[in-house]
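Researcher: Next entry in the queue.
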Amino acid sequence: MDQSPCQHKKDDNILGKDSNRGAMADIYDQIGGKIRELRTTLKGKGISQEDLARAVKTTANTVSRWETATYKPSIADLEVLARFFGVPIAVFFPEAQAASRANALISATADLDDRDLEEVTLYARFRRAQRPKRKA
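Model: Structure for this entry, 136 residues:
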């Protein structure tokens, strides 16, 4: 049995999974595919499952099982993976990509003080006002 500290158990309640295997099984397949894609393309050449496992303090077996959706990575696991790969956690959730513009804005302005945030808001309003009007 895997002795890693990761929370990857076969828990049907992680990420809101219910008894319906269809849609949620697909998301775990997509998450696993994204983990594999990020791992195999890292720095243009990729890294092994063993190297990724060492970096995120788990086992190569766990990485393999995440990639094949045998194990379901927890949100904490995905946060560690996102930090390692230098990507937002939203990349693991295809439906969340629609909100990526908002996430990018939130991320870019997160540490601004109120005055700077107001300046960014005013600039955004200015830019919107500069767009050509669309005909109805």
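Model: Residues 1-5, 7-21 have pLDDT under 50 and may be disordered.
Researcher: Noted, moving on.
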